[in-house]
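notes to self, project folder thing:

trying the whole complex as one job this time. last attempt i did each chain seperately and stitching them together was a nightmare. two parts in total, labels are on each line so i dont mix them up again. if this works i'll redo the older ones the same way
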Amino acid sequence: MVIKPYGFAIWEKIQHALDTMFKETGHENVYFPLFIPKSYLSKEASHVEGFAKECAVVTHYRLKNAEDGSGIVVDETAKLEEELIVRPTSETIIWDTYRKWIQSYRDLPLLYNQWANVVRWEMRTRLFLRTAEFLWQEGHTAHATKEEAITEAEKMMNVYATFAEDFMAMPVIRGLKSESERFAGAEETYCIEALMQDGKALQAGTSHFLGQNFAKAFDVKFATKEGNQEYVWATSWGVSTRLMGALIMTHSDDHGLVLPPKLAPIQVVIVPIYKGEEQLAQLGEHVEGLMKDLRKKGISVKYDNRDTHKPGFKFNEYELKGVPLRIGIGPRDLEQGTYELARRDTLTKESIDAGRIVARIEELLEEIQQNLLDRALSYRESHITEVTDYQEFKKVLEVKGGFISAHWDGTKETEERIKEETKATIRCIPIDQKKESGVCVYSGKPSSGRVLFAKAY
Amino acid sequence: MVIKPYGFAIWEKIQHALDTMFKETGHENVYFPLFIPKSYLSKEASHVEGFAKECAVVTHYRLKNAEDGSGIVVDETAKLEEELIVRPTSETIIWDTYRKWIQSYRDLPLLYNQWANVVRWEMRTRLFLRTAEFLWQEGHTAHATKEEAITEAEKMMNVYATFAEDFMAMPVIRGLKSESERFAGAEETYCIEALMQDGKALQAGTSHFLGQNFAKAFDVKFATKEGNQEYVWATSWGVSTRLMGALIMTHSDDHGLVLPPKLAPIQVVIVPIYKGEEQLAQLGEHVEGLMKDLRKKGISVKYDNRDTHKPGFKFNEYELKGVPLRIGIGPRDLEQGTYELARRDTLTKESIDAGRIVARIEELLEEIQQNLLDRALSYRESHITEVTDYQEFKKVLEVKGGFISAHWDGTKETEERIKEETKATIRCIPIDQKKESGVCVYSGKPSSGRVLFAKAY
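result (full assembly):
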């Protein structure tokens, strides 16, 4: 995966917004090594079980010229005594370090996060959604009590949900994973689940309550106020460049990307429509003040005066790139003191008096942000279908897609069968699940509440 | 290398300042993969020559349970057809991609940068200065002409120098590397060289004019305006977490770190001196307004009201951490309407009227920033010694250290001999080297100007 400048600028905006939210909730950034000794990874049994099959392994530390002159080869004399794993996630190396940092309750909590690249070897990759290497943040916190750790895990799920809705204009369902979908090493996995326009669900972020599993595996104890030695409680939580995929698939249409203003690298693009150098110069001068006014308001604006491309080409290009607002300006607008303003989300145009343009742009950026969220929410709401029998379950899944709200008997076996037969998995047990007794859509056994199934990326 | 929160906060400030300067000079951020196929690395002969001996090599992509139950082992059936190198630098994978992005002069220049981790296997590591993995930024630009590429390489050297001096308060010498110290694959390496307090030099940043070497190795041609096919011209430039080492070693004293205000995560710390809860509450209320006023001015301030540590302990701690200004406030200050203000750089104290405190802090932060630069500059200036004969060269190197300005005959052989005999290397040929004919300090052969030698990290 290569991330080009425009895509990376979106990722930078995502990073900035999230990083600010992390810091506001008391977290600090740190950096831990890329390479994890194999023995560390092996210490937490279910963790290694979950990641062993997709690890990139460093075995040597030198190359050399082949003796037969055939080129560069691995120098077999430079074999590592212990192989290094390229981190698929950093719980193990971080908890090995936390042992040295935590002695007493006074050292707790540790509320740390890192922005990093990780590698999970994938046989079938899919850009932004499933790539061998991806960029992410991983929070790793240490607490004195179980309650505090659970509160932290829930808080970060809520931070992710707020970010998804307020910045990405992407509605999400907050929930708990079923046991078989839990993070390897977690006691409980909280998640936010989004629905893409093709009816498939996408796990957009997870926050794990890790119990004392890693503290036990790495022998991390602390002296309590009362002087007892106890194992430390842990959480970890992460979102990744997968959010870029989510953003693209939530809002795009047949014309290309549609970006929510809060994450758009360019919020307003101005395209001059002109004949000849002189008109171009005139228009250039005319829009200078407007650009200054917009920038003063913190609105990012680009003036595209390239003479190598026609306005129509530019219009298409910025539609493709999802720029929320486009201003077209030609000599007639100049005469009349107007601007032509086009919205990317609705593809509608309006003519605005120069005196009102800045205020109108501010209004519209907010309106677009809200409209995208509303649109996605209304799509999502109309794609949660309650079903009571398995035939209906399969039919809805096939014909309509989306989330299926159904009773489940709570067993791994049923979950596994449904997955085998339909490819649908339990996306989550919603946090706001209402207690409602019923019978499992598959087994007919008793159930105490509905869960959400869907096909997922 | 683990970077803890306080250290990482300094790195974030370095990143932010540099990233802003890169963007102001027209660069955009991108992201390229961590893993480089071995065959890519091999394409530019001198490049692979330079990096082959320190490459971490990924050979497998899966672990498994050992058949004898002895634990987790590498799955030999999951051997990669072609080994992957963990990037030591990214010229090869980037130029392999640029081939797809560049067809015509219209596609040029490409002015891209990435913030990334890289790995160079080091036998003797030294925290921040020489670690197997480090964090850095690497700029990779592509140009239509040689002149434009050279201008870019020089511009980025100057950006680095400005950053070092304006933010790090670290004076640097701008220069060119001799051929043997050049980057593997470069035609010319520009550098900034700093002097540490122990008299050793430290290469703080490099900017390379790569000629057409990588374009030729990766077959990257473009159609000129005239319709000819020509190879593209390249630069690359980078600074790393090594700058953290430079920062520490430039300003620290026997009491600990001394941070320039522009890079200090905490610029002002306030420590209450009190007896009992009531006094603490009073002081807390009293400083609230001051903190608000400072924050309004963009000054970062921390109020340390921990009741687990005494004021004296806190004073030491913030000295150790290099916080530029410390305010002590006790009941007597409250009565008299004063604050006690202590400077970290000079370890001096003054008592300031509450009404003047904000203005005085603003003044002092500027003064400290300037004082650190002046102090480091005066040390550096007094540690550049002109020598004319080799005995003196050796004596100065041993007794005084620092840079030695000496004539050199321009040959690799002389450079090599001096290095073997004294451990001093040519740090750079200063950009502002004045033409001055003389004789080589080692060989007695003619020389056209002085170069700077030093022992280096």
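what i see at first glance: Chain A touches chain B through 53 residues (CB under 8 Å).
need to look closer tmrw
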